[in-house]
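Structure request: Hydroxyectoine utilization dehydratase EutB, Paracoccus siganidrum.
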Amino acid sequence: MVTGMVTLDDIHAARDRIAGMVRETPVKPAPGLSRLAGGPVWLKCEHRQETGAFKLRGAANAVARLGDVAGVTTASTGNHGRALAHAARAQGLAAVICVSRLVPQNKLDAIAALGAEARVIGASQDEAFEEARRLQREEGFALIPPFDHADVIAGQGTLGLEILRQVPDAAAIAVPLSGGGLLAGVALAAKSLNPAIRIIGISMERGAAMAASLKAGRPVEVEERQTLADSLGGGIGMRNRLTYPMVRELMDDLILLTEEEIAAGIRHLAQQDGETVEGAAAVGAGAILAGKLRADGPLVLILSGANIDPARHAAILRGQT
Ligand SMILES: *Cc1c(COP(=O)(O)O)cnc(C)c1O
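Returned structure:
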């Protein structure tokens, strides 16, 4: 199948490599969403993964594949930065997470709590990224990007293997979509094992870079805007090599949600299913509630992360967005 640079074999190898470092997360039925969607809906509870998001799978696989390096680095302050810090510590490697002056103290503390150095540099994400590149160039660090990297994609693909084992008759998987590492890996695994399975990507209407790029026919930049699905923000990289072509080839449908629809998803998952998730992880539920996604056969929603500010979560449950 497709896309040459990542294969099902790579995903199987990643699964064996990271087995001791990641949890197998549970799936559970969602009765309320099933009624609304017209067919069985399953929740893949990956927000219960170590570090609170699936990103540990890709980071752990990439770190485990490294040869002799001085340490690892990246410029992500979100779930990828946490995952990389955790994976590096598990392998006894130094991790330097480069951040700009705009990043709030609580995020710096969270990185430090994972045993990594948060290096504050420059006034923008671009300048922070420059420092990560300098560490790679001059100090022997490995720069592990959040999605456009074969080992990261293969690691995220292990989630697809798990889903097909847990829900063997799955007809479709709804995948939160940003840079596309998650969707590319899950789709490659799932379609290799069952070519008929449908892969539905879901992003927010506000600033979805992959959606804009697919429409333009090449990677394009979009203006970054505040969104409840903050883990879905950011660009796909103007020199994207892997995830853009893989998503273009493997995704069957793309759904975009308003902020209200994402908030409704967060609320429903908390109140009806007892799951606390961040905005990015609530898009599948939000799409069903909005009437934008139906279940023609068993449908699996990936709850991709749990990292939401508790005060924010409480406000959303009270009906504020
Ligand atoms: C990173 C992330 C996504 C999107 O993953 P991509 O590989 O960038 O498409 C979705 N949900 C959560 C919680 C994330 O941290």
